[in-house]
Amino acid sequence: MKDIEHLHTLKSEILDIFMTLEVNEHERRKRRAAVRYLKARRGIEQRQEKRQLAEEIAELPE
To answer: Distance between CA atoms of 49 and 46, rounded to whole angstroms?
Structure first.
């Protein structure tokens, strides 16, 4: 009987470890996705700023 209880405890501990690993991996993926999103957003904003600056420079009298 004690062996069965020990086995159940061991299974529970393994499941807890696995779930923790899954949660950690999910959080890592979310952080990486957020970083990619921010880089893409910054790239878009920089491109828009460059276009706007080029237009403003082109409008200046020589």
So the answer is: 5
Our measurement of the distance from residue 28's CA atom to the centroid of its chain's CA atoms, rounded to an integer in Å, reads: 6
Angle, CA of 15, 21 and 24, to the nearest 5°: 140
Please give the Cα distance from 37 to 29 (Å, whole number). 12
**pLDDT tens-digit map of 4-49:** 899 999 999 999 999 999 999 999 999 999 999 999 999 999 999 9
CA–CA distances in Å: residue 33 to residues 29, 36, 37: 6, 5, 6
